[in-house]
Protein 1
Amino acid sequence: MNPMKLKATPMDTGVEFKETRLDNGLTVIAEVNPAARSVAVGYFVKTGSRDERPEESGVSHFLEHMLFKGTPTRDAIEINLEFDRMGAQSNAFTTEENTVYHGAVLPEFGPRLLELLTDMMRPALRQEDFDTEKQVILEEIALYADRPQFMAFDWARARYFRGHSLGNSVLGTAQSVGALTREQMADYHARRYSPANMVLALAGQLDWEATLEQVRVLTHPWRPVSAGREYAPFQPQPGEFRQPYPKATQSYLVHLAPGFAAQDERRYAASVLASILGAEGNSRLHWALVDSGLVESVNASHDENDGVGLFYIFAQTDPANEERVVEVLRRELERLEREGVRPEEVERAKNKIATGIVFAGETPMSRLFNLGLSYVYTGRYETLSEMARKYEALTVADVNALLEARPFSQGFLYRLVPPEADS
Amino acid sequence: MNPMKLKATPMDTGVEFKETRLDNGLTVIAEVNPAARSVAVGYFVKTGSRDERPEESGVSHFLEHMLFKGTPTRDAIEINLEFDRMGAQSNAFTTEENTVYHGAVLPEFGPRLLELLTDMMRPALRQEDFDTEKQVILEEIALYADRPQFMAFDWARARYFRGHSLGNSVLGTAQSVGALTREQMADYHARRYSPANMVLALAGQLDWEATLEQVRVLTHPWRPVSAGREYAPFQPQPGEFRQPYPKATQSYLVHLAPGFAAQDERRYAASVLASILGAEGNSRLHWALVDSGLVESVNASHDENDGVGLFYIFAQTDPANEERVVEVLRRELERLEREGVRPEEVERAKNKIATGIVFAGETPMSRLFNLGLSYVYTGRYETLSEMARKYEALTVADVNALLEARPFSQGFLYRLVPPEADS
């Protein structure tokens, strides 16, 4: 009895999807929206820490920085100025499995932004820039070591995925980055930034034919090399680990449990389940832990990776409450697996997620991420309406079906705690 | 010679502006956009720390929290659940002169969101909730005391605006909040949350006539009281103050200088000037301080208040570099006043700001802020196109005219530094 069903809002009116693969192997996709007031452009490179050899740990992220340092015809200042002249909103990020470069501008600057980003994909990697930037990366690594809230998740993943490349650190270590040479980076770039391993995505107001012609000319010299990814089998093992850390003043709890891959259609139901369990502001864990004053914050979400997925829960608490928080967390997870979810919980989570999808469709920049990542993982495009319909169709039974395998009972609990609390 | 002039992009196509004042004094305004996929609703209350008596310092911000704690017919949980059921993205904030409550939802939930926010404007202010929330606020005050980066700006304002209510702290102090009674808060609410002192703004997909009828019914019991604001004259005095602070590990420099009020048309040129001086990523201060490695970050902006404006510059630096940073900062400000700005700098800043305006027009939620705040300050509405045209028309002479009064030479420099650096 929920009166708030999603209307079939005409979310994709006038929007047209285009895709092609160039002779050099580069995939180009676009969601053309003539009513948009801007255009977003992004290169999605299917490479990240999971694709690194042990001796090159951290190279994906370091290389991401180097792409802003210069090309054969531009230095770092010229790249910075060119973004600035267009008034571009731009950035880049590196994860375990993707490196993404993106920007948004007024439609009239679209071709210039495309030219700049394309030029950056073939960086000069000058030795002097490499040496300077290495210091910046080493400082970043040192800085994060002071942030247990960040490291807790990284170290929990490393233990959960032990022996699997999805446990690799994005930042790398002071040792691995310190020892890295320019030649190793150039070799990694040559292997991983093959046009066949990249998707160029665009969203918003643009001329598809003109864009395609421009990309053909700009990337004409690019040569494809084969750039695979290893999909080692992964078998999660339940367990726990408690680590005292001098820089921790709070206790950080990370619970990881098997979920569903980016290619698995059950990922929609998994997002709803994670929302019911631990969405910030209102969820089972919110009421059990935040509202009761046991923790400052808690949240659960579902993380879809290439071939593997996981549920994760993060809680930060006063060390004095640590054991009580773990107890409540275990009780809630057990109750969830035993009793399943209720219809009104599913409806509420579906509304929340569907609204989020609409908000994420309001600007070309936010559409770009959906578009590019969905394509990298599944090789296909999903309209906003299709996504909304998939959530709309979910039932309580779909969500409860995920619980039959008792995923949370197979979870791994990682605790990063102040040394004092370890006595 | 800049080829990147703004096209007359049809930014406001299909958008219609509506406004009315109800008999109880409440102003209702809307930017109706039938093509939008969501609707944003906000109450803009023209009250903040500058409107507080000394003994009620912090009440505006504390009251903002209390509006989420309950109305005569809803408790805190019910308010939270109701936002959640709609999948609303909502929040609130308090500044020196405004308290704003806002949310965005799918169009079909618009009336429900409007009902909820309107109900919240008449809070129950239950004693038990008041006592509990007071502890939360006191913890927040203690928390901010650990964040010199935040306090530096607050304390710099207090000194710059000494004797003027714009120097009042939004958070208040542990003493003032600790001593505050429920009755004082109820009195403040009765004085300041008069419908005549509030603007209800909406943006996105909505039915204006139906909205208006709903608001009339919901706010029928509201009675206007006169709620003025004192506009004491303000005469900035140049000077500086250096304060050692045990919790500072870096040196924080805040430079404040006279600017232009929210009602002054020269504010557009002032934004361009601030961008040229200190926009993050690319500006005179960026190249002089960040690129040279002297500071971690620096930025300048122009802050428009009701009747008074100011330029502010914020830099964070290693204590060892403090004197050198101050020297470079003074040199750059002096050079700016002596030589003025260059045409290409003005063009670049205009492009950047114009692009920002377009991005801010892409979602109903971001339009809402522009719409509501512009109306609170000037009593009128400005379309995106009008704003873009005003920037487009700016010349080098307009920007240089602001420098004739040598505003930065009348600036006040506040330094918050580690105690060790004070020897």
Note: Confidence is low (pLDDT under 50) at residues 1-9 of chain B.
Protein 2
Amino acid sequence: MPDETGLAMTVDELNELIISQFPDYAACRVAEVSATRLLLEADGEKLRTRPGGTISGPEQAGLTDLGAFLLINARIGRTLMALTSSMQVNFLSRPRPGLLRTEVRLAKLGSRLCVVLAELRDEPGGLVATATLTYSVPPPHQR
Amino acid sequence: MPDETGLAMTVDELNELIISQFPDYAACRVAEVSATRLLLEADGEKLRTRPGGTISGPEQAGLTDLGAFLLINARIGRTLMALTSSMQVNFLSRPRPGLLRTEVRLAKLGSRLCVVLAELRDEPGGLVATATLTYSVPPPHQR
Amino acid sequence: MPDETGLAMTVDELNELIISQFPDYAACRVAEVSATRLLLEADGEKLRTRPGGTISGPEQAGLTDLGAFLLINARIGRTLMALTSSMQVNFLSRPRPGLLRTEVRLAKLGSRLCVVLAELRDEPGGLVATATLTYSVPPPHQR
Amino acid sequence: MPDETGLAMTVDELNELIISQFPDYAACRVAEVSATRLLLEADGEKLRTRPGGTISGPEQAGLTDLGAFLLINARIGRTLMALTSSMQVNFLSRPRPGLLRTEVRLAKLGSRLCVVLAELRDEPGGLVATATLTYSVPPPHQR
């Protein structure tokens, strides 16, 4: 049940959700959350790389997907039934080693479909990737 | 250098490329390749899952990305400089456990940009996901 | 109500739908339809061009969107409540003047969401564009 | 040649470009431009509608495409050789009648590839659509 901030989960609860359900993303933690925005931080050294040493594209996509999932959970309450229906990612530059920040924003929270925009930045703040994700969510009376 | 079939690499060479450069994708092997199409098979039991036990979306995206990379290498010769510039994936149904087949087709092989279409199917043949990937490739005189 | 072929509308009924509801697409007509595929033909001379004389990208996108809309109508029965929720188009080459053929295939017909793949070809058969469209459709009991 | 603001074209020059080269978009005019952002305004009453009276999806896509084209021209100088290579649009809500504002932002201006993010809003400010467009541009020495 969302509180007066519009949120149904705290940062700590979101981080517990990562630990208990997403062991492949143990390098990630939620730094901030509001009703329309979530910031996820990841240690780039612990992510999958591709030949040449840069972080793999699907791993970058995975960060935006995890961020979107967590923001939707923060809004509608903890549910594993929020399912990615599409992801679209543009890779803009190779991330510098170190911290990666994934910022996700809610563009639409519909009764069955959500749209989330994501931006991935490395430590100096350079834009590494942008993404748009759509999620299928349980209808309000089943949440 | 491509031979008369239009291919610069054999199935065996592509599989050696997976083993030497993509250890995260050890569950995958190339089953077939032609000048415009490649079939990649993966043991779904060895892929990353998400809560609920199904194969994670980014992992499915990764299969289509690997297939696209290999098909482009098969055409232009072994290069790690073929880089994903975008990926767009639609998730249609949850894959059944077991073998996953990723079929990639070359829609465009330009002098600097390639476009690859992908379809992911589970063992009974059901369509699990479709994807479109774009790759930035070295210009012909640098290959 | 779909008949034994799985179709709820004939080619003639689909063409009447274009004429009555889509006057901007008067240059288009349905040439073939089956339960999973529709072929739309357009006179390229009557479409919007962009500077340089080629057919504009949004106009190409519009052909794939119209084809997807018609195929979904052919399956679930005439409804204006099938709404595009996303379109993703890759432009591969400039079409030659003359006939343009848009082939759309149904990748998923869900209870609320449809996914359609499209390929656009010019007269010699060259691939001009590919697209993926998602549609929100009325649930079965409201069709 | 860009001036000290990083711009190679003024708002007036961009609006002349619309009038001379894009007669289908006569309902549009550039309201603001900076080195990384452009605001395009359109009279929704003069755009293509679809059955039901809302502005058609491809027409919305066209606004984001035009905005992206103009912003790239504003940066690299007037050229018709900036070509859309992909467009990805999510339709979020039906626009209210009246003014439509398309805001485009430059995510990447590479030597050959540009990535532009777009948001389309109606008069009350509601988010109507988001888009990501990629453009192929002439290399710097040919501009």
Note: The longest helix of chain C spans residues 57-76.
